[in-house]
Design brief:
mainly alpha; elongated
Amino acid sequence: MSARGPRGERGEQADRILAAARRAFATRGYTATSLRAVAQDAGVDPGLVHYYFRSKPGLLEAVMQPPEAFGAAVADAAEQPIERRGRAFVQATLRLWEDPVTAETLRAIVLTASQERAAMERLRQLFPELVLAVVSHSLSDAERNLRASLISSQIVGMVMNRYIWQVGDIATLPADTVADLLAPTIQHYLAGPLPAGLGAGGTPS
C-alpha cells in the first residue's frame, strides 16, 4: 500500500482513486461501494480518499466529470460553420468513444448514472449544457433548448446502442458509416425547420 500523504493536488494517487471509483460505481453501484473499498482497489490509504474528495458525494461528483477531451471536442465542433456543425459533433462524439481511454471514463459515467439518482441528475444537467454549446447562440432560448434536447436524444441513443448495450448493426458498423447515417439528422435538429406552432419549451402553442 502506498505511503500516506498527497503527492500533489491532483497527483497519481488521486487519479488511481478516481479510476477505482469509476470501476466500482459502474459495476457494484454507488450505494454498495464504500470509500474503504475504493481505497483498497486503488491501493492507497483510506485517508487519502477523504483528503482528495472529502466525502462519498464529493467522490461521485468527481467521477461524473467528463474527461477534458470531451469539453474540447464539443468546443471544437461548436466553432465549425453551422452547415458543417452537425457532422462535426457526431464525428467528435464517435472519436471520443472509439478512444479506449476516454471511452472508459464516459462508460463509467453512463453506467453510474443508470444506478444512482444523484448521478443521473448530474448527467441530465451536464449533457444538455454541453450540447447547447453546439447550437447557434443567435436563436431564442426556447428554440436552443429544444434543439439541444433533440440532438441529445439521438446522440445518447447512438451511444447506448453502440457502446453500452452493443445492440444491432449500429454496434458493428464502422464509425465513418455511423457518422454518415446520423449526421443528417443531427444537422436537421441543429439548423433545419421545426414544426410550426411550437411554443416555449417545445410544447404546442
